[in-house]
Amino acid sequence: MRLFFLLISGLIVAVASKGTPTCETDNDCNLNGECLPGVKTCKCDSGWTSSDCGALDLRPATRGTGFNITSTGTSTWGSKIIHDPHNPKLFHLFLAEFTDDCGLDYWSPYSRIIRAESTAGPAGPYTFTQEVVGAFAHNPTVIYSPADRKYLLYYIGCPQSPPETCTDPSFTCGPGNFINGESGISLQSSTDLKTWKFVGQIFQGANDDAWDADVTNPSPFPLWSHSDQTSEILLAYRGCPVNCSGNELLNLATARSFGGPYTKTQSLPLFSAPNEDPFIWRDKRGHFHMLTHSLEPDGSFGSGPKVGRHAYSRTLEGPWTFNNQTLAFSTLVEYSDGTSVNFYRRERPQLFFSEDGQMTPLYLSNGVQENGSSMSYSVIQPLAGAKQWEKTFGLAA
Ligand SMILES: *[C@@H]1O[C@H](CO)[C@@H](O)[C@H](O)[C@H]1NC(C)=O
Ligand SMILES: *[C@@H]1O[C@H](CO)[C@@H](O)[C@H](O)[C@H]1NC(C)=O
Ligand SMILES: *[C@@H]1O[C@H](CO)[C@@H](O)[C@H](O)[C@H]1NC(C)=O
Ligand SMILES: *[C@@H]1O[C@H](CO)[C@@H](O)[C@H](O)[C@H]1NC(C)=O
């Protein structure tokens, strides 16, 4: 009897130590890792964690990094890190800054696009270097197009001269929105990140009853690879009905080259769940991924911690899977001094990847707002591989 009991408990221990199977295929690992045969558990790629590899493996941020000039009265939003092509110790940050000390509520029409520089690593701190596009210009993101040997700046807006006292007059930058001018995606190109040439408004909304009559939140990705040197560009965007009077949902468009025309890959939204601020990329295996700002009831604009979601697809044509189980990132940012800030709002996710072809996410940047403040700034938080990567450039202290 005693021996039988020992045998049984031994068997239970043996089964338990093998772990509970969590995956059948790599899809169950969010395509951010591999489902190990036999044990059927996920082995996550660097930068990803949790049992389904659906959470970003974030590490403590350092106070004073990113771009936070709220002490001077100025608010900023979002940010995209670009590594200088000639100077390995130089990093550029493209972000939105609100003129006239207007807070986040006045992003339209006070937002302009600026460039800041850092020689302290991708996380910064960054210092203001130049205005790139004057007000109203918002939602900037920059990619390098290898086929064109150009940097491409995608953004929304059109020139406005708002009064010095913060107000929000109704205006339009094209079809789809007559209230805050957000509809319509514009593009500028550059070879040196400093001088920019206006290409045009390359993706427009419509004054009809479409779910995506209003188009904004551009996230481009060049489909170029060593084996297929195409100039094709993939563009994720957020749509909503005219004047953004309904759900904010996501979709994709592609263009043969950056100047357009951009054609929607499908007519229906990618996901039924409301999301904005998509950030899209293709990984080392050729699979597609997206981070989003989730507008679910426990996230959204100050309603709770569930602000960051991840979605994936094996091909551009889909089907896309939206991970509504594991949160990709929350409103909580931990700092290396042991403190933490639970932000009221944390949006506009953008990643900086390793440059070795592995597409390892190394830094996450967001626009943030603290609870009880009307101002906003840009946080940059490192991921698991960041310290090692900084060492290779002689940047880490
Ligand atoms: C950003 O700057 C403000 C004003 O100086 C400061 O109160 C806040 O703590 C800073 N944020 C972080 C994360 O350090
Ligand atoms: C959009 O807003 C403008 C300006 O307020 C208004 O004139 C127009 O009727 C609105 N359109 C729709 C479809 O709501
Ligand atoms: C989560 O996603 C699954 C699969 O798409 C869906 O069946 C389920 O209803 C979703 N749950 C919630 C809470 O949205
Ligand atoms: C934000 O501040 C308000 C009052 O200032 C407070 O009631 C609320 O609990 C705070 N929210 C969080 C998430 O800290």
UniProtKB/TrEMBL annotation:
Range of residues in the leader sequence: 1-17
Disulfide cysteine pairs (residue numbers): 44-53
Alphabetical list of InterPro entries matching this protein: EGF (IPR000742), Glyco_hydro_beta-prop_sf (IPR023296)
Spans through the membrane: none
Keywords, comma-separated and alphabetical: Disulfide bond, EGF-like domain, Signal
Domain (EGF-like) ranges: 19-54
PROSITE patterns cross-referenced by the UniProt entry: EGF_2, EGF_3
Name the UniProt record assigns to this protein: EGF-like domain-containing protein
UniProt source species: Hyphodiscus hymeniophilus
